[in-house]
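Is this the right way to post structure tokens for a design question? Let me know if I should format differently. Anyway, here goes:
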């Protein structure tokens, strides 16, 4: 297949392709692959905006500002009455039995899928594009599961194959020994918080963006096995739920996304338990909290934002200009040559620095604005506590950016699953008659991607502004404190709206300068 540089538009009848280098990452303990910017934004041609990009950015920022004004004028519900209505979806009798049977079937399929992917990765072809493992893990699970968790409901707690295997092992252990649990039931250290998941998420992003070669199916299978051992060890020491809720990247990430979804269990602040009742609720209302999250959870949410933003930033001309500046700098050149002589991958090093720097920028900026919020509200709540109270209201922004950033990738790369299901191991099979189905690059256009990104980003920020305002009314008793505390948050959200749209626009549209 033809492959293209980061800033090249795919034109005419050129074939849509995977990238030159496929970055490795982990999903459910597995390494997975992600395409280059070409894959995420491969279209017949770039889209010419009908208006200068600056006007779109200004309009998006104005929409957020007007939302804030309407909330300040119209929403004056007292904190004690600011409750969100939900509808109980609990079932009993035959419906409950059918639900349990469906749940058991899904759990069994998830374990069967884990075993099959491990086998296919180890013993199938090692071609990235002819083995189903990389595509299914990245497209079908990481991107697809995120969409499902955010837009409908979070199924990960039910189908997590490592959790299911542990449950089965524990039941077998109980039947043999009479003990109720396989775990040592040591108390999970409160100080550890969700730091294991946060470190894992940063590592996942690094594997996705920096190293080369780990996209091979065998490497993914080994990653799945190693991550499974990591999960089992933690569950065996601290118990299933305490470990997964704090240390499993995907339980934590999909849990945050699931709190936005319209379907969820009644108390989103408590880990899901067997037998919990499900409710239909206003989308996003599950992100409202009655207590501040931990500092480590705050960092995790900011990582979700900074990682995907840095991923998008790598596709911009500004990134290439920065690389050119570093390469030609008379100050940095001697150091770079020395590092290169020591065998250091300079591009990987620069990306690593950029990835960590983006987290530092996001964390520093958010804490700064939290300090401004604290001062604006009369210092009734400290800056760090303020940051912990409001960080979940940023989750709709992370969801919106995720949807916008991966929309074209999901629509295009997802088509690879059609032929791969017929020949999952690259052995020349045609099990379902789809092995020779070709990708249709015309299924999505740059115009569609741009307007999808525009609507999604603005809507995500509007929802975030609304949630932050409602959260403020739960914390502060007087209208002045509510209003003043939200002005810095408004500035932060408007700034991020405009910058994120600018980043997303770079590989998709031809921009025009104002004037």
């Amino acid at each position: 297949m033809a492959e293209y540089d980061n800033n090249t538009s795919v034109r005419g009848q050129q074939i849509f392709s995977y990238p030159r280098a496929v970055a490795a990452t982990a999903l459910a303990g597995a390494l997975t692959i992600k395409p280059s910017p070409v894959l995420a934004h491969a279209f017949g041609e770039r889209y010419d905006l009908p208006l200068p990009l600056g006007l779109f950015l200004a309009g998006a920022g104005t929409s957020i500002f007007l939302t804030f004004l309407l909330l300040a004028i119209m929403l004056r519900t007292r904190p004690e009455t600011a409750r969100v209505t939900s509808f109980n979806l609990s079932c009993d009798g035959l419906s409950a039995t059918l639900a349990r049977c469906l749940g058991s079937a899904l759990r069994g399929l998830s374990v069967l899928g884990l075993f099959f992917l491990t086998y296919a990765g180890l013993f199938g072809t090692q071609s990235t594009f002819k083995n189903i493992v990389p595509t299914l893990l990245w497209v079908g699970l990481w991107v697809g599961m995120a969409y499902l968790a955010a837009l409908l409901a979070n199924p990960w707690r039910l189908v997590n194959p490592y959790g299911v295997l542990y449950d089965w092992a524990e039941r077998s252990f109980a039947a043999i020994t009479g003990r109720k649990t396989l775990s040592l039931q040591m108390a999970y250290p409160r100080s550890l918080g969700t730091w294991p998941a946060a470190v894992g998420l940063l590592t996942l992003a690094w594997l996705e963006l920096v190293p080369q070669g780990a996209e091979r199916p065998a490497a993914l299978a080994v990653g799945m096995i190693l991550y499974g051992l990591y999960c089992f060890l933690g569950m065996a020491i601290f118990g299933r739920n305490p470990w997964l809720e704090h240390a499993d990247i995907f339980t934590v990430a999909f849990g945050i996304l699931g709190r936005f979804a319209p379907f969820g269990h009644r108390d989103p602040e408590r880990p899901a338990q067997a037998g919990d009742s499900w409710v239909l609720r206003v989308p996003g209302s599950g992100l409202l909290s009655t207590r501040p999250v931990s500092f480590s959870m705050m960092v995790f949410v900011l990582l979700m934002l900074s990682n995907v933003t840095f991923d998008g930033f790598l596709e911009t001309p500004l990134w290439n200009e920065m690389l050119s500046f570093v390469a030609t700098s008379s100050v940095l050149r001697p150091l770079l040559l020395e590092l290169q002589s020591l065998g250091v991958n300079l591009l990987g090093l620069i990306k690593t620095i950029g990835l960590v720097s983006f987290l530092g920028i996001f964390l520093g900026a958010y804490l700064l604005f939290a300090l401004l919020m604290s001062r604006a509200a009369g210092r009734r709540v400290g800056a760090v506590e303020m940051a912990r109270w409001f960080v979940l209201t940023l989750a709709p922004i992370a969801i919106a950016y995720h949807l916008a950033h991966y929309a074209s990738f999901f629509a295009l790369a997802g088509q690879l699953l059609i032929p791969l299901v017929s020949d999952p191991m690259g052995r020349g099979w045609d099990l379902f008659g789809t092995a020779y189905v070709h990708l249709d690059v015309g299924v999505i256009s740059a115009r569609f991607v741009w307007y999808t990104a525009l609507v999604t980003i603005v809507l995500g920020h509007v929802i975030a502004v609304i949630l932050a305002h409602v959260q403020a009314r739960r914390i502060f008793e007087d209208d002045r404190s509510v209003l003043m505390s939200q002005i810095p948050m408004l500035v932060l959200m408007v700034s991020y709206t405009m910058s994120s749209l600018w980043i997303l626009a770079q590989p998709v549209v031809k921009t025009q300068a104002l004037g």
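Format looks fine. Someone answered above. Worth noting: The chain has one domain: 23-510. The radius of gyration is 24 Å.
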